C-alpha cells in the first residue's frame, strides 16, 4: 500500500453518491477544501460513529471552508440506507471497484480476527482548493476523528 502524502496531487474522481448523482472532486473543491475520508463499510459500529461525528460537526468544518465526503466500497443503495438511518448531511460516495481507494493508496491487506483480506484502511485526506493533499489523517480513534480534523484546521 502506497498512501498519498501531503504535497501530492489528489487523484481526480467522479463517483455516484447515495442519491445516484455523479459527484466530482473538482466540483466539491469550488471555494472549499475537502476532507475525503475513506471508511470500510457503511452501518458498522466504527463507521457509524465516525459519520455521526462528522454530521454533528458539519458547521464547525464549514467555519474552516471544509466539506466532508465519505468513500467506501459499498453500493449506492447501501449508502442511501446509511444516510437515511443515521440522518447524514454530506455525500457518501460508492467506490465498488475500489479504483479511487487504490489511487489514494488506502486499499490493501488487512487483518481481523486472524483472517487476512484486502480492504479499505481508515485514512482521511484534507485536499486544498488547488487539489493538493494538505494533510493525511491516519492515526485517530473513530469517535475522535472529527476533533482531530477540527484541531488541525484551527491550528492552520
Automatic annotation (TrEMBL):
InterPro entries: AhpC/TSA, Peroxiredoxin_BCP/PrxQ, Thioredoxin-like_sf, Thioredoxin_domain. Keywords: Antioxidant, Disulfide bond, Oxidoreductase, Peroxidase, Redox-active center. The keyword Membrane does not apply. It catalyses: a hydroperoxide + [thioredoxin]-dithiol = an alcohol + [thioredoxin]-disulfide + H2O. Residues 4-155 form the Thioredoxin domain. The keyword Oxidoreductase applies. GO terms for cellular component: cytoplasm. It is an enzyme of class 1 (oxidoreductase). GO terms for biological process: cell redox homeostasis; cellular response to oxidative stress. Its EC number is 1.11.1.24. One of its GO terms (molecular function) is thioredoxin peroxidase activity. NCBIfam families: PRK09437.1. Monomer. Belongs to the peroxiredoxin family. BCP/PrxQ subfamily. Thiol-specific peroxidase that catalyzes the reduction of hydrogen peroxide and organic hydroperoxides to water and alcohols, respectively. Plays a role in cell protection against oxidative stress by detoxifying peroxides and as sensor of hydrogen peroxide-mediated signaling events. This is thioredoxin-dependent peroxiredoxin. It comes from Pseudoalteromonas rubra.
Amino acid at each position: 500500500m502506497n498512501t498519498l502524502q501531503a504535497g501530492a496531487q489528489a487523484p481526480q474522481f467522479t463517483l455516484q453518491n447515495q442519491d445516484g448523482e455523479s459527484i466530482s472532486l473538482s466540483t466539491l473543491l469550488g471555494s472549499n477544501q475537502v476532507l475525503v475520508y475513506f471508511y470500510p463499510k457503511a452501518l458498522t459500529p466504527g463507521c457509524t460513529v465516525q459519520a455521526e461525528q462528522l454530521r454533528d460537526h458539519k458547521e464547525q468544518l464549514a467555519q474552516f471552508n471544509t466539506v466532508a465526503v465519505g468513500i467506501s466500497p459499498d453500493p449506492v443503495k447501501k449508502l442511501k440506507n446509511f444516510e437515511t438511518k443515521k440522518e447524514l448531511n454530506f455525500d457518501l460516495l460508492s467506490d465498488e471497484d475500489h479504483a479511487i481507494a487504490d489511487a489514494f493508496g488506502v486499499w490493501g491487506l488487512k487483518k481481523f480476527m486472524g483472517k487476512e483480506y484486502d480492504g479499505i484502511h481508515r485514512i482521511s485526506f484534507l485536499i486544498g482548493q488547488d487539489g493538493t493533499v494538505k494533510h493525511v489523517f491516519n492515526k485517530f480513534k473513530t469517535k475522535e476523528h472529527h476533533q482531530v480534523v477540527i484541531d488541525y484546521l484551527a491550528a492552520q
